[in-house]
# Entry
Amino acid sequence: MENDNKLDLLTKKIYEEGIEKAQQDAHDILDKAQLEAQNIIDEANAKAKAIVDKANNEAASLKQKTETEISMSVKQSVAALKQQITNLISNSIAADMSTAAFKDEDFVRELMSKIIEKWNAEGNLDLNVIMNQKEKEEFEKYLTAKHKNLLNNNLTLVSNDNQKDGFVIQPKDGSYKITFSEKIFEEFFNTYIKEYSKKLLFS
# Structure
């Protein structure tokens, strides 16, 4: 009888230890799984953050680069417009002076004679050498009058052959202003933005 009791106690003890060990193993497995799951989540979050940070940095870099390129394009387009206006006016005045020389305007004919007389073989031309101070002042007055005459008559600059209209320079409040439509400026500015757009899209 006593042996039966001992056997029961031993069996019970083994059973309880087995249950306890199984529970501990299950607990350890669960803890390990939870830890691994948390590590996976943390790693996924870190990767997601890295992707977002990279995308934000690239977007910021592209934005800055785009703004810089657009600013440069604006400066180039304004510089080109100024140059075209200068060329248009100077060419018109030069053509007008040539016409005037053949119409026997004394001042222009005299200027042309001096230029021809003092022109050297290299083609160098310095008005400071050709004219004395008084003649230079008269020449500057002449040019100023020609500039005013052109600008006071709504001078129009067409930047390409396909444009029907263009930039119009007209007098206003004792000075001059350039007027143009949105379409005209868009066509003009488009020339200077095309190259950057091509580089941005295809390079």
Q: What stands out?
A: The mean pLDDT is 70. The chain has five helices and three strands.
